[in-house]
Amino acid sequence: MEKPSTSSRFRFRDHQNLENSPLSNASSEISSASCDPADETELQSMAAKGINHLCSELLELKAESDEDFHRNIFHNYAAFIRVFEEVEGMKKQLTQLKSQVAFQRRLVKDLVNVYLKALSKESIELVVQESVTAEPSTPSEMEAHISNVSETLDIILAENRIDEAITILELERENVQRLQYDGDSPSDVLARYECAISERKAMVMLQLTLVAENPRVSAAELQKTLVQFCRLGDSHLATQLLLKYYHSRIATGIHSIESSKSFSHGVYIRELVKFVFSMISQAARSFVMLYGETSPSASEFIRWACEEIEVFVSNFNKYVKHISELSGGLSTAVQAVQCAMSFCTLLETQKLELRPFFIKQIRPCMEEVLQIHIEHFKNVITIFSATDAWVLGRYLVSGIVNEARSSMVFGQQPEYCLLTNSGRKFITLFQAITAEITHLVSLQMEGSILGGLMDLFEEYVVILERAINSQTNVTDKGGSRINSAESLPQQISILANLSTLEHFFFGSFRGIFRDINQSDSFQQGEFNSCMLFIQEVNDRLRAHFCQQLINRMMSCKAGSEHRPEACIVNVGDHNRLCDVMPSAAFQVLFLELRTVNKLAEENVFELDWLMELLREVVQTLFLWISNNKEMWALTEEDLTRQNSDVYDQKLFVLDIHFLVEIARNGGYFSDNPAILATLKNSAFLSAGLDPKRYVDDEEWATNAATKAIQKLIEIQETKSLLQDELIGTCEEEQHESQNKRASDSSRDDGRISSADEVSIDESEAAVNTQTITLYADSSSVDCFAREGFEEEKWASS
Q: CA-CA 20 to 30 A from 285: which of 104, 201, 606, 707?
């Protein structure tokens, strides 16, 4: 390639020219610069010119080089393209050559396989021909046949051709059996023949066993090996190897799951269930592929599956006991059981009935778990009952009962229900518990479920019973303190609360067990006994309430120190029967029942339910009078006496008629008035009085009882007005006192002296004293009858 003339001009310089150039002159003069300071400026300008000239020459060289490079690329582009095309062609030829080599290799391999198959077929056919058609007639021929078969099997086993070896062994085994049946062959030769076949069979089985027991063997390879075992006639060993293989996989899998740190508690147990039952299912499929739907070894497989379920249950028990928190342990265990039961259902499609055995194994563990959580829930009930003030509240049914069970639990009842604070919490807790444990019905744990729920219900009822005992700050067995229901409205609120819970329990149990009431596993009698238990617990608490009320009333009869503060009027003069009032105890009863009736009018209680309760109170009181007849009984000698004995007799008659009038006015026996007459006659008879002899006193006693009721009502209303006026007066005086202090404070610029504070304290003390006096005047209305009765009693004595 011809180079331009300009390139030589820049690339090759004469040294002479360089010496004559300004750059050489500059370099020569630099040496003298140090000795001639005057020429320093001239030297610097000459060096700058030399550098500029050098840079311009370098730029020209770069431009010339770029031009040469592009010119070379342009002239040699066609050669580059031709080389690239040749490389692509060489690649294609190389790929074709590789394909041809692979094809030739495949042909060679196929040829070798065909040859081996032909050789094997020829050997097998030769052995078969010798075994079937050629019947050795002499021992020497049999010896030759044994030697030939043994040699052929040795060759095949050496080449690891197990299927061919099994085919030959099958044929030779049939030949040995035929010869044994014929009995023409010598026994020693036949024994050697049989021994040779048995030895080769043992060699085959040894190789198959090594394959089956290899930890890395796949399921497909194992299945093929087990089929070969069955061809050799050893199905029992095949079954043992199959079960051993899946047992090893289950053990390894369980260990792997336990060692894994990535699983939480709930995920761990569900993964464990899924893995164990999946392995059992895979083993069942392999067993069916090996033996078919029916097999004499099926019982052995079922036994193995049950053993694996025992292993799972053992791990499940350890897991449940390991869970320390009680908040989610029951839910997690129930979910795991549900998962296991669903797998048992899937296994039934493979004709594996493992559900009964699984239920039998897992039920004791779940019963223990359930009992632990029931005890925990008892403590929870005690905790939230400790703060209950025993005041009824009206709650929307849809707000406290699950929407799916609302109609089932309360049916066509009103949309509101009456509950105390602890009752509402108890229903919420009960629903949360039943939502979890109802799934345990599939484990045939109906008895344990009902028993646990009954324990919770009874635990709450015991708390209610202790609250009704009217003991201040009742201490529960767990050390918690329970607020006592000291007033009658509080105690009736407890009974109304329990009545709502009873109704809720009946409906809930019907909903829980509605699908299994007719099943064989569920005993209807046990369910009915639980319903009866709830009713008996409710009746027991109502009876306890009635007895407590009567005991409190009768304490008023024992002495004035036990009487409650109420509007009680003295019983009157002995000699003036027209002024006789009922006993203080029955006056207290009337006033308290009147208070309760007012609450019913204000819709605090349901009227029908309250009427039933008060009717039960009156019946219990009459029954108590009849059972304690020694307090009222009058002998014939007493009946002949005058004065005090006649007075006591009249007072007793008046008390009975007073109770009758209370019941009539309240409408407690409006449905069946005959019951009230029967109760009255029983009370007379218990006191030794003949009801027919006192017919003349009927009108007097009825009028006296009616007047007593009117008088008590008037006194109660008067007391109520006095209390209202007292409260109003106290509020006005407090307001005036506040205004006075405010004016005094503003007059003294916000300062109050110690003397002013004393006067204010004195005025407040005077107001308080006046308030106490007013209350004392009001209480005197309650107590003057009691004092008058005591004075009359003292005078008569």
A: 201
